[in-house]
Amino acid sequence: MQPAVDLACAGKVKSAACRLGPVAILVLALAVPAAAAPITRTYDVTVNNVHDLTGNNVAAPFNPVVGSFTVTFDPALLTIVNQTSGITVNSLNLTVASPIAFSYSAANTDEVQIGGLDQGTGGLTDGLSDFLVDIFDASGQQPFFGNMTYTISATTVATGQFSDFGPSSRADGTVTVVPGLAVPEPPMSVLFLAGGLLSVAVKRRGKSRNA
Fold first, then answer.
1. Could you give the count of Cα atoms lying within 13 Å of 112 in the half-sphere of its Cβ?
2. Residues 6+ apart with CB under 8 A from 101
3. How far apart are CA 24 and CA 200, in angstroms?
4. What is the mean pLDDT of residues 27-31?
5. ∠101-121-100 over CA atoms, to 5°?
6. Cα dist. 140→19, 112, 169, 178 in Å?
7. Predicted confidence (pLDDT) per residue in 95-113, tens digit
């Protein structure tokens, strides 16, 4: 009995797949990069030189501002707005009257914005304890501080005006990050391809032995 012949590889001019063989193809398939998947980052933020930004000359009630936030998000989504799931406030040394949320914008320098939900993560409410912080290059290896501002619930001057508090410049803030341990899973197409190629390799060996 003649060995079974793979018609796709029978000609004189063989494809790269035929020359490599099924085992080599399996290795190449498993080397395909995994699809994008959510990442988890813990951002430790410290902001110094916090002062009254509105000119009321009120002493900042919290200086420095120190906080730690763990955020899980998928950069492939490109935009996330005011999401309260996927964020944990590990610590924060000021009071925020509304739930803490986060937003993400890949287009805006890979930005994660964390803040009170009352006016969304991009706004503050006068007369309410509110807070926001911007972190840029958030999904990269070296995220950096963008801005931080907070308000308090009490009026700060006799005229009834309110004060916003923040740093003098970006240099007054620091961000350190601890990457999450989540490992992206291989795409299902790669798993199916690997399984199919392995099956082909086993069948060919069996036919050769029975020839």
1. 30
2. 82, 83, 84, 87, 114, 115, 116, 117, 120, 121
3. 12
4. 45
5. 25
6. 40, 11, 22, 11
7. 999 999 999 999 999 999 9
Q: What DSSP state is assigned to residue 85?
A: T
Residue 103 sits at φ, ψ, to 5 deg, of -130, 160
DSSP state of 99: -
CA atoms of 38 and 55, how far apart (whole Å): 42
Q: From CA 30, how far away is CA 22, in angstroms rounded?
A: 12
Model confidence, pTM: 0.69
* 45: its two tokens: 């933020």
Cβ-Cβ contacts under 8 Å for 28 (sequence gap 6 or more): 20
What the block records as the tokens of 72 is 């899980």
Q: List the one residue out of 140, 127, 146, 164 whose CA is nearest residue 45.
A: 146
- How many CA atoms does the CB half-sphere of 27 hold within 13 Å? 5
DSSP E strands: which ranges in 53-166?
A: 65-73, 79-83, 87-92, 100-105, 111-116, 130-136, 144-151, 164-166
Does residue 99 have a cis peptide bond before it, meaning omega lies within 30 degrees of 0? no
